[in-house]
Amino acid sequence: MPSLPPAASVPATTGAHNLPPFHGPILGRDDDLALLHEAVHDGNSVITQAIHGLGGVGKSTLALDYARTHRSAYTLTWWITADSPQNLTAGLAALAERLHGQAGTDTATNVTWALTWLQTHPGWLLVLDNVEDPADLEPYLGQLDAGRVLITSRRAVGWHRLAHPVAIDVLTLDSATDLLARASGHTAPGHRPALTELATELGCLPLALEQAGAYIARNQISASDYHQLLREYPARIHATPAVLGQHERTIARTWRLTLETIATHTPLAVAMLSVLAWLAPDRLPRDVLTAPANDALAVNEALGTLAAYSMITLTENSVSVHRLVQAVARTPNAHNTEDTITHARERAAALLHIALPTTDPATDVGTWARWRALLPHVHAHTSLTTPDQDTQDTAHLLDWTGWFLSGQGQHQQAVAYAERAHQTSIRLNGPDHPGTLTSRNNLASAYRGAGDLDRAIPLYEATLSAALRVLGPDHLHTLTSRNNLASAYREAGDLDRAIPLHQATLTDRERILGSDHPDTLSSRNNLAAAYRGAGDLDRAIPLYEATLSAALRVLGPNHPHTLTSRNNLATAYQEAGDLDRAIPLYEATLSAALRVLGPNHPMTTVIRRNLHVARTAGR
């Protein structure tokens, strides 16, 4: 190998710059640029910075903006597309050739010459763009401490020995809207609402905003028109570049190449990302993915791989993913078949179903935090799918979620879910399947909770008729149907049918379940309510008192059914004119409801209103 020329033979100030074409900085990146400048020039021992983030977030543009803005501060600025070891060495060899002509007879010699020059001449900036693997840089960075190295990469981890990581996120919504307005030419104030809506749909990702703005400007359409095209033709839209001919700079290609890289060593990671595409983008409880796994270690490794490539944001307890990553993962293409997409969609429903609490969502207060964490993902899944795609898991998921929502007073959404669950059960199981009868009962209850007794009562009647025929008179589901129908009659003011049906149901539940079973307590409370509705307080009050005594013993003082019993007894005392017993009971019940259920729960609202009425009557 020929000897290297002495470093001193190379001029100290070269003025060599090879920066790529620049189309201007990304709007809204001033803070990131300032942060980068501060990190690079903080005077500490860290001279290498690694800008990392999701593909399309603007890492290279930010690095280029910095390099161009500050190139006068450096004796040399050299840009290398370092997405492979071969391209990295080629870029270093090109630096040697630029500085000293034919510095060596082969690439290895030129690389060594370039590294020697960089080590002996301070004041340069070396940009290594789109690094795929931090390990590719280890043989070189250890030799370079005389200048500054700026790295861009989709890899979020692996930099601790090599560089100071600088995470770059998406734009703020205002900055994203500004970028979209500039790129599309729609800068008039009247366009801003539609641009903001589109920017939100695009997740404020700079590359997607540039693609959208260029398409809108090129084809002279509105932001709303583009939004509609995005919904109808996602694959074609995501594959359309901002600059014609630059097909490598598209959302679809950027992420497809990343996923192909991931698939070579962790195929489970790609499969999990496909599942995440059918859920909400933010804060999925992590155990939804890990709890049912046969190999929790493999799942954790797959999630770690996705996070390492900036495809997801991973915390100890949650997983988040950019909404456009989800959209691409839901879009069929040569690498993402319809069968693969269907499997991922159905797996998402199954995982959510498994993750649901299995106790009564209306009364098990301890599960409500879990329900609230899962609700955004149930809502997202159902909005991304159509009823004909629903599986048995989807039907159960909607049934239980509707039950929870009804108990929380969210009746409109509860009805929508119950209707869809019932239709799915009929389609999959037939009209007389026990699961279909349960979903029909739950739909009737959702109607009843929404105050629509005209639809609830016929549905309850049909459910009870089918349950008697299919399950028999003593089946627990049949008893529930009878209780619910009687309650609907009572709420409709039809006490002539409500009272005998409540009496019969209570008798059968005492015989089959025992006098202290929670269902029996419910029947006893409901019969007392029917007596009270008929003005028969002499029978209602003792029955309420017995129900409350049993509820305190069986369920405990803080159970929602116990609170209901206490409120109902107080109401009976009030109607009997006994405010001395009604008001203290209301006060104690409200205090417990505030503590257990919270101030905005429907039951708390009812108790608060009843107490106010009682106090007003006592003045």
Could you explain the architecture of this structure?
By secondary structure, this protein is mostly helical. It is built from 28 helices and eight strands. The strands form two sheets. It has a five-stranded parallel beta sheet, sandwiched between helices. A three-stranded antiparallel beta sheet has the order 6-8-7.
Largest sheet: 5 strands, parallel
What is the approximate shape?
elongated
Tell me the Rg in angstroms.
Answer: 33 Å
| Number of helical segments with 4 or more residues | 28
Q: Could you give the order of strands across the largest sheet?
A: 2-3-4-1-5
* Class inferred from helices and paired strands: mainly alpha
